[in-house]
Amino acid sequence: MIKSPIKVKLSSTVIVLLKWGVDKLPKSINKKPLKNYDYRVMLVKRSNQIKFFPSAHVFPGGAVDENDNSKEWEQVIEKPIPSNLSIRISALREIFEETNFFLDKNEKLINDKNKPIIEKLQSDLMNKETSKINNFLLNFIKDTGIKLKLDQLYQWARWVTPILGPKQTHRFDTYFYVIPIYQYPESCKIDGTENVEMDWLSPEEALEEHRIGKISLPPPTWFTFHQLLKCHTIDQVIELAKQRDSLDILYDPIMTKPTIPSNASTNLPQERYQVLSGDYIYEQEKQKQQQQQQQQQQSSGSLTNSNSNPDPNHKNRIITRSRIGDLNDQFSWIYEYQNNIPGSVDSQYDGANTILPPKL
């Protein structure tokens, strides 16, 4: 768990890759010819009633709850038990709640025979009061006698919600998982509450729809698609995901705005930075936090001084701008990624940006 002045909650999100070209695709699914890729990625459109990124397209997921931490889950998981089991269980549960399919053994768990049971399970899980005292999902899987395999969830990254202001009550430490599926889950549908639409898009398609303003992508989602952009096959994604899984890559951004000289033009574009590890602004802020902690410990004689100075040329940041000059409108957001940190796993994506068409 990361150190933070406000509470941090664990959560998960899942980048579901569907090998394209499979049969039995429903009429509602993306039927455009797929170019340059052999897979598409599931995205859900959040309800406009959601406070955080309303109406944005995101990967499905949600917070870890009390039931996900039950030790009894080990009874229904194939051995060896994978790491961070409670977070993986939350991924399993959230995908089922939001899109009505299971990340493993879906055909065995959902079929015409147990349709009434599944519908009741969905209803039970949506009832937050009774869910607090009943582990409905665990009990359902126990009753089936089926053991699940969750080690095919590969950890792509962890994204921590930045500190946004004094009214913020918590942050999320979200584990981004990648999982491939090779058959379209026929039971798949959105919940109609938190999410109102489902789309399947290739990395290229998702970035293009964001570029033209058709969909809104939060910065982590946009950046993830840029990381996937060079992976043209599902096998390439899984190979990269395995490498990233071993690195436990953490993005813990600090929100900041550029310093504007007093004599600067008032017509400068509005910008907001999410600075990441290695960026000189990030390292300066971390040093300030450490110094504050050390000053609090001074009375105990444990005060130490940091002599390292961040390189002022180092950048690792996502820059958010508005195509209409209004950063309050998330649908107008466009991004640029800068990274010149030697040896950084993401320096290969330096220069990624939302390229807008030239004005006529």
Oligomerization? single chain
Strand proportion, as a percent range, falls in 15-25%
Cα separation of the termini: 50 Å
Count every beta strand, where a strand is a DSSP E run of 2 or more residues: 12
In words, what does this structure look like?
It contains 9 helices and 12 strands. Helix content is about 25%, strand content about 20%. α6 packs across α7 (about 220-230). The protein has helices at about 85-100, 105-110, 115-125, 130, 135-145, 205-210, 220-230, 235-245, 280-295; strands at about 5-20, 40-45, 55-60, 60-65, 155-160, 170-180, 195-200, 250, 255, 270-275, 315-320, 335-340. It is of the alpha+beta class and about 350 residues long. The N and C termini lie far apart (about 50 Å). The longest helix has 17 residues, at about 280-295.
Topology at a glance:
Elements (H helix, E strand, L loop, with lengths): L6 E13 L19 E8 L10 E2 L2 E3 L21 H15 L6 H4 L5 H12 L1 H4 L4 H9 L9 E7 L9 E12 L13 E7 L1 H9 L7 H10 L5 H12 L4 E2 L2 E3 L14 E5 L4 H17 L19 E7 L10 E7 L21
Parallel strand pairs: 1-6, 5-8
Antiparallel strand pairs: 1-2, 1-4, 2-3, 2-7, 5-6, 9-10, 10-11, 11-12
